């Protein structure tokens, strides 16, 4: 049932504050401001590293997770798309654990990667939405995403709930390893607890702007997304979402890679969507934006209040989100990216929930 919404995708975008709050409550104690203990099957304290694998959007949430595990838990993460991971014959060690991320829990390549790690004797954790799925069944520890059924082929709420789970696990891992202090744990969990409210505020405040911007975006054939840090995987997720449902060609790049190739493409026909919260990368990303502007590129700038005040560049549009803690910015910044793709597709008249050539669950290689 779509409720008041035109498409499941729209419904699922707007459900995010509620489902993410539900997902988080499984991993954090909102009142004590602590993370809950993690399933003992994965002993973060004694791990030498994590191997992570997934496909599509789930892979991109894993990439964000890599930044968190490395930063907060000082835990090295080896991550690859499952279709490569399963054949790479990478050396794995028993003191590594493996994490697989999947909405459906049935993705063939992800399952094959899981079985490979299992044969190597690694403990297996599954971040899945469907708890009865094959991936869940074959794992030592299940970390449910708790997003509720996701019908739209383009993943939205499963993505942000995967992020919420990964953020909580990274903090729990940091706590176990002594790299996150009790004070830091408290701050991080407080930020996570604020997220559902901030997400609903953002969804309400940007809707109209996203709709009118989508009209402009629908006129283009190619779009480039740029970001640094956790905004880099988010840039790739933005590009994936747009191409899946609007069929506009889009690429996501690390902003620092611009001058190593994609800058050759910049002209007035290819808008550049820059994802830049006012974080420790902001100045660097703005200098990449200047390079785009100097070549006549049009910029769609997704930033926060501090970022908007700090940049004086002319843009095609600036989307201003509230200033938020760094740990929650990927979930909050996912919202304009999802809405922009959604409204562009609606405007172009594509089949938003069932885009051509795609299946919700990819159970063949
Ligand atoms: O069910 P899974 O999370 O394992 O699916 C992985 C990908 O097939 C999936 O994320 C796909 O990329 C989505 N269509 C993205 O919107």
TrEMBL record:
GO terms for biological process: amino sugar biosynthetic process; carbohydrate metabolic process; fructose 6-phosphate metabolic process; protein N-linked glycosylation; UDP-N-acetylglucosamine metabolic process. Keywords: Aminotransferase, Cytoplasm, Glutamine amidotransferase, Repeat, Transferase. One of its GO terms (cellular component) is cytosol. The active site is at residue 360. Its EC number is 2.6.1.16. Homodimer. This is Glutamine--fructose-6-phosphate aminotransferase [isomerizing].
């Amino acid at each position: 049932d779509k409720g008041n919404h035109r498409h499941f995708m729209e419904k699922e975008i707007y459900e995010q504050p509620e489902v993410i709050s539900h997902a988080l409550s499984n991993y954090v104690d909102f009142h004590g401001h602590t993370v809950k203990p993690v399933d003992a099957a994965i002993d973060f304290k004694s791990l030498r590293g994590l191997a992570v694998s997934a496909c599509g959007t789930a892979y991109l949430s894993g990439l964000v997770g890599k930044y968190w595990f490395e930063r907060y838990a000082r835990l090295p993460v080896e991550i690859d798309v499952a279709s490569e991971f399963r054949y790479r014959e990478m050396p794995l060690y028993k003191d590594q654990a493996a994490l697989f991320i999947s909405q459906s829990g049935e993705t063939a390549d992800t399952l094959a990667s899981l079985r490979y790690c299992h044969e190597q004797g690694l403990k297996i954790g599954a971040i899945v939405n469907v708890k009865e799925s094959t991936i869940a069944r074959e794992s030592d520890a299940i970390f449910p995403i708790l997003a509720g059924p996701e019908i739209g082929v383009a993943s939205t709420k499963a993505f942000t709930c995967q992020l919420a789970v990964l953020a909580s696990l990274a903090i729990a891992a940091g706590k176990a390893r002594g790299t996150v202090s009790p004070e830091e744990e408290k701050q991080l969990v407080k930020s996570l607890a604020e997220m559902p409210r901030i997400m609903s505020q953002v969804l309400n405040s940007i809707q109209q702007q996203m709709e009118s911007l989508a009209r402009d975006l629908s006129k283009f054939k190619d779009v480039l997304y740029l970001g640094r840090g956790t905004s880099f995987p988010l840039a790739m997720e933005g590009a994936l979402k747009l191409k899946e449902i609007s069929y506009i060609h889009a690429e996501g790049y690390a902003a620092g890679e611009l001058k190593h190739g994609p800058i050759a493409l910049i002209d007035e026909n290819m808008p550049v969507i820059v994802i830049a919260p006012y974080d420790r990368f902001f100045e660097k990303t703005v200098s990449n934006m200047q390079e785009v502007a100097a070549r006549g590129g049009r910029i769609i700038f997704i930033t926060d209040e501090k970022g908007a005040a700090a940049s004086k560049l002319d843009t095609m549009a600036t989307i201003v989100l509230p200033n938020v803690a760094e740990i929650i910015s990927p979930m909050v910044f996912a919202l304009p990216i999802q809405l922009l793709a959604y409204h562009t597709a609606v405007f172009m008249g594509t089949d938003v929930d069932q885009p051509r050539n795609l299946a919700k669950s990819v159970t063949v290689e």
